[in-house]
Specification:
With 213 residues, the chain is an alpha/beta fold. 37% of the residues lie in helices and 15% in strands.
């Protein structure tokens, strides 16, 4: 083949070296499953499709937030076991007035922020686009820009992760973020799993009663 189109299949160096490939396209936002260095050595172009699933991921993000707040999985598991606990599962903190913290403000993060406004949630954002490019503010003036990941974690009732996986972001949500998370807050990760230090997150779940989606 001259062109390779994949969704989640890893594209390895042996695959890239097996024929006359000139282009590898990842039908999704991330390209961490493609051996870009091997492709570069052979002059093979690598492309992705950022933003095309932004609305779907934003909807999934809010599905997870609501599931945690209303404890939907616990409710369903109990009901299937023959237990109906209306008092327990009718209690929820709700989302109105609670702060949503976003790590990352690309196409998906922006769609999540738009939906947060409909729920009456203040939004605070940390993004490399603001810190690296020196941009002082987002075009959406209803959001607040934070100087660090830790600053977002400190004020967020819900922390939602929307960072691309790069060498710089691998494990970026670690002990320093864990130490700032509010007691009983929620952490949502619809990005790559590798951006989270799961040992640190486990400590937060145990010690700060964090709920995770």
């Amino acid at each position: 083949a001259d062109v390779l189109l994949v969704r989640g299949t890893p594209v390895t160096a042996p695959m890239l070296e097996a024929g006359p490939l000139s282009l590898s396209v990842r039908a999704g936002a991330g390209y961490n499953t493609v051996d870009v260095a091997a492709a570069s050595r052979r002059g093979i172009y690598v492309a992705n499709c950022p933003g095309k699933n932004a609305m779907a991921v934003a909807e999934l993000t809010f599905a997870l937030i609501l599931a945690l707040d209303r404890r939907v999985p616990d409710n369903v598991a109990d009901l299937r076991a023959g237990v109906w606990n209306k008092k327990k599962y009718s209690e929820a903190r709700g989302l109105f007035g609670r702060t949503l913290g976003l790590l990352g403000y690309g196409a998906i993060g922006q769609e999540v922020a738009r939906r947060a406004r409909a729920f009456g949630m203040p939004v605070v954002v940390w993004s490399r686009r603001f810190s690296e490019r020196g941009e002082a503010r987002a075009s959406d003036r209803s959001i607040r820009i934070a100087a660090s990941l830790e600053e977002v974690a400190e004020v967020a009732d819900v922390l939602s992760l929307h960072l691309a996986l790069t060498p710089e972001t691998r494990g970026i949500v670690g002990a320093s973020v864990r130490g700032k998370l509010r007691h009983g807050s929620y952490v949502i990760n619809t990005a790559r799993g590798e951006i989270v230090d799961y040992a640190a997150l486990e400590v937060a779940i145990r010690e700060r009663h964090i709920r995770v989606g």
